[in-house]
Amino acid sequence: MDLNTPAETPPEALTQALVDLLDVEEIDTDLYRGARQPGGVGRVFGGQVIAQALQAAQGSVDPPKTAHSLHAYFMRAGDEDLPIVYRVVRDFEGRSFATRRVIALQRGSPILNLAASFQVPEEGLAHQDTMPDVPPPEALASDRDLRAASVNDIPEKFRRHMLRARPIEIRPVQPRSWANPQPAEPRQASWFRLTSPIGEDSAMHRAILAYASDMTLLGTCTLPHGVNWMSGNLQPASLDHAIWFHEDFRVDDWLLYATDSPWSGHARGFNRGTIYARDGRLVASVAQEGLIRLRR
Known about the structure:
By secondary structure, the protein is an alpha+beta fold. It has a single domain (about 10-120, about 135-295), classed as Beta Barrel (Porin). Helices cover about 20% and strands about 35% of the residues. It is built from five helices and twelve strands. It has helices at about 10-20, 45-60, 145-150, 155-165, 200-210; strands at about 25-30, 30-35, 65-75, 85-95, 95-105, 110-120, 170, 185-195, 235-245, 255-265, 270-275, 280-295. Strands 1-2-4-5-6-3-9-12-11-10-8-7 form a twelve-stranded antiparallel sheet. A hairpin with a 4-residue loop joins strand 11 (about 270-275) and strand 12.
């Protein structure tokens, strides 16, 4: 199923399309193949490559060890016309921890390197930051509805992309104008969740959170400068991406993604994110540096 689907597509079909996209195929020992997105055009979404690479790493680790962190570097843009091959290297297998390296390949060339660490669950000293005080998702409009309300402000060449049905619903706390961005504080927050429930596979929940963590994050460092990818003079791209999984969560229930950017310069922007469950638990932290080069 094409993820770039029309508005009438049932939420269950959208969700299943995303699960199918991220459910990598084992083709040999420590060798996996990630499907291409049906109907995808141009370069592969970075969150897809991270999520598929994480799935390949998770497929090589036996329970009860679960992923607690990953660090990824993007090297080349992925091509939507091709599947992606993931080669897993088992660097370490201990009693409490295990580490894996994953190389994502297209046409024999690496497009991403990912390292992931796994741990047997155990108890320990615990504390966390407090979840930001924001309105609940029920009080907010979805990102897609906000775009539809201002469709006349969106250039026609972007409308199909901006208004397509998606498997992940986003409800921004501070809605922004895509067509007319204004300088703002480099801080934002959004609720997000899958459009329909999935099963109990915790590995898939982590993979989908990894996929979603690449949404809205890079744009945070562009907020003070009043530009975005629609401005026409900005070349944005993810350079690296890191996630720390702290607690159990479900991606088919509302999660709050709060992001900030303490620095940008030299055509790069640094972004941080914290992801909270509705009950206030800090379930994941994210960091990313991205290219934000202004074209002449």
